[in-house]
Amino acid sequence: MVMHNVAIDTPREINIGLLGCGFMGKCHTNAYKKIPYIYPAAKVAPRLKVLCDQNAAIVEREAARYGFEEYCTDWKELVADARIDVFDNCGPDPVHPEPCIAALKNGKHVICEKPMAIRVEDARRMRAAAAAATGMAMCTFNYRFMPAVRFAKDLIAAGRIGAIHHIRVHYLQMAGHDPSLPPDKVWYSRWPFSGGLQGIGSHAIDQCRFLVGEIKSVSALVRTFNKDRAIPSAGCPADVVSDEGAAAILDFENGAIGVVESSVVATGRKNFLGWEINGSHGSLHWDLEHPNSLFACLAGVGGDDSLLGFTEISVTESGHPYVGDWWPQGHNIGWEHAQIIEKFHFLDAVANNKPLCPFNATFEDGYRVAVIIDAMRRSSRTGQRTDIQY
Fold first, then answer.
1. Share of the chain above pLDDT 70, in %
2. What is the pLDDT of residue 300?
3. Per-residue pLDDT band at 302 (split at 50, 70, 90)
4. Helix extents (H) in 67-181
5. Which among 62, 42, 41 has a CA at the least distance from the CA of 51?
């Protein structure tokens, strides 16, 4: 038996420095591990260089488990490390602005988890830092990279559903549905007290902008139903609390009407993001519980409506967006894969000098979502429709 050495093209190594070793730190690390063998042609090799978390015992353990070479407990050391190419901020929401701004000033490329910032003022500073930086900056709205969502965007751009009239989008969870649960037992009301609108409503708002366009004004209600969880959100005025439900009517610049809803007390719903878009020539529907299916009604005009209805399209063909690099047709991909696809497109842009837009969410996108959330809160407080001013 003759053994042969494997010839390997030398990829570009990109050193990753990651802040935060919780749920999203684990998720991002998983993406970096998968990228080299799913996307070999890009010749990108993420190197897990430094993991940072303020808890020394936890970060030492998780650095070994995740496969990082080193760890530290001070983000200031991480963003100043000349070896780091990409700073990935998976820390708590209030710890997004300062490390990201410092990393951008130090010439790093930056990935920041959503919501980009709790306060719109901080989001504005982050946007300015990104605009002045030499590195690229992305806010992680990962649902843009579900193949069915991207396919829907392509159909809309091609005019297949005509002029858009309506979008209804919701993101529902049941994290706090039990009134007996204390604030520290549900994710949105324990520190940093971000609330459901920031935590999941931000995704719903980004889907509106990504698929339909810019929002002109909002009329909203934002509520906390369990008053012991109405804890002031970190770094915000006292009247901004960890909300549990929000609903808003949106007026889009293109004339469309939108309804957006978020809830963390929706009993029975584990992680239910979904939307329906109605246009002059057709409609589209998608939800995260059926992630590989886009339901489409492409009617045309003036035809026979006797068979008209929604058709389920299995978005698993090699020609569908993002699918060809993965499995044969009919083999589903899900939440994890959108995270991997998103991180790959960012690293591919960094390594091969490609643009982030229009599919990766930039710090401009993160800022605009923060502005819309702020407008929704103001509308709820005043009882008035509020214009969106960037």
1. 97
2. 60
3. low
4. 75-80, 97-105, 120-132, 147-157
5. 62
d(CA 337, CA 140): 14
Give the largest CA-CA distance in the chain: 79
In whole angstroms, how far apart are CA 294 and each of 121, 155, 277, 350? 37, 11, 11, 31
pTM: 0.95
Same domain, 120 and 155: no
CB 251 within 8 Å of CB 216:
yes
Helix or strand (DSSP H, E) at 293: strand 293-298
pLDDT tens-digit readout, 154-204: 999 999 999 999 999 999 999 999 999 998 899 998 888 889 999 999 999
Q: Is the pLDDT of residue 237 over 80?
A: no
Q: Which of 143, 225, 140 is nearest to 176 (CA)?
A: 225
Which backbone phi and psi does 149 adopt, to 5 degrees?
Answer: -65, -45
**Do 128 and 200 reside in the same domain of the chain?**
no
- Output the CA–CA distances (angstroms, integers) from residue 256 to 83, 191, 193, 201, 298, in the order listed: 47, 37, 33, 20, 18
- Residue-number span of the structural domain to which 148 is assigned: 144-387
Backbone angles phi, psi at 217, to 5 degrees: -160, 160
Residue 27 lies in a domain: yes
Amino acid sitting at position 13: E
Q: Are residues 126 and 201 in the same domain?
A: no
Q: Is pLDDT at 142 greater than 90 in this prediction?
A: yes
Digit-coded pLDDT (tens) for 108-127: 999 999 999 999 999 999 99
Q: Starting at the earlier edge strand, list the strands of the sheet with 12-19.
A: 70-72, 44-52, 12-19, 86-89, 109-113, 137-140
Report the distance separating Cα 250 and Cα 353, nearest Å: 36
Q: Which 3 state secondary structure label does DSSP give 106? A: coil
Shared domain check, 289 and 304: yes
Domain membership of residue 95 (yes or no) is yes
**What's residue 304's pLDDT?**
66
Q: Could you tell me if 133 and 255 lie in one domain?
A: no
pLDDT of residue 231: 85
Q: How many domains is the chain built from?
A: 2
Encoded tokens for 359: 């599919």
